[in-house]
Design a protein that fits this description.
265 residues, alpha+beta, Alpha-Beta Plaits, 2 domains
């Protein structure tokens, strides 16, 4: 198994265990969980990187019976990072997905898969994995919202690196942001996730979907206008007061580098 899949497999396993622990503690419905597998492509090998990624997708599609539940959405960052978002729901799903990688190797042939991994491995400089858990109390999706993760073509990801010991405060602030959006009836939504596996935690990420860059600017402006500039700035100051760092990045959805789920018949 390649380094890419070894690291992905470890992240999936730990994330699945985390979800199982939440269920064991009596959670009525486990929040959504995602693995984010990030690779930084070599600038001079972008074409080769994308070509081998498409080869991998085609290989999975040709052997779908070996990986019937595997799916991911690809996001390309402005920094030439490629982020593959894989949903995980529970421990059983994690075990099934791990086993499916071995099944793919058997179905496709180890030599063919090994050759693909060697060629793809020469096109990127680094890879890392992080697991995130959705925070429903902070996530806001208005009824009838025009842009959702289902039709988004662009994303803004705001990363809040929370000071250690301020996790409860972060939860409270996320909930207060949601109330501001609800009270102002902002017509655009967002999701909040917190890091449960990976480096540089505590980390909370706010994901805002848009159609494109221009639409994102409209969405951000509409939110500030609806809530009010003064109230918005006060809330931002309150949020940053518990943070040791912050960054905001934008990503383009790459449907051509994504693996859609198998549709039920």
């Amino acid at each position: 198994m390649s380094h890419r899949l070894r690291s992905l497999s470890l992240a999936i396993a730990v994330a699945a265990l985390t979800g199982a622990a939440a269920l064991a503690q009596g959670t009525a419905m486990a929040p959504k969980m995602f693995i984010v597998h990030r690779e930084h492509a070599l600038p001079e090998k972008l074409a080769d990187y994308e070509a081998t990624t498409k080869e991998f997708i085609a290989l999975v599609q040709a052997n779908r019976s070996a990986m019937p539940t595997f799916a991911f959405t690809a996001l390309q960052g402005e920094d030439l990072s490629y982020n593959f978002i894989t949903p995980i729901q529970n421990l059983a799903a994690g075990d099934t997905l791990l086993a499916s990688f071995d099944a793919l190797a058997k179905a496709a042939g180890p030599e063919k898969l090994g050759d693909l991994f060697r060629r793809s491995g020469a096109t990127f400089t680094s890879a890392d994995d992080n697991a995130f858990l959705e925070v429903p109390e902070g996530t806001y999706w208005p009824a009838g919202g025009a842009v959702t993760p289902m039709n988004a073509g662009y994303y803004q990801l705001d990363s809040y690196y929370v000071k250690p010991g301020y996790e409860d405060a972060a939860a409270g602030i996320a909930a207060s942001w949601k109330k501001l959006f609800e009270d102002a009836k902002v017509p655009y939504g967002y999701s909040v996730h917190k890091l449960v596996l990976g480096n540089d935690g505590p980390l909370w990420v706010v994901s805002t979907p848009a159609k494109d860059a221009a639409n994102l600017a409209e969405i951000n402006a509409a939110a500030v206008k609806a809530i009010g500039a003064a109230a918005w700035q006060a809330q931002v100051a309150k949020t940053l007061a518990i943070c040791r760092g912050f960054d905001s990045k934008r990503y383009t959805v790459r449907r051509d580098l994504s693996l859609p789920p198998v549709m039920s018949k």
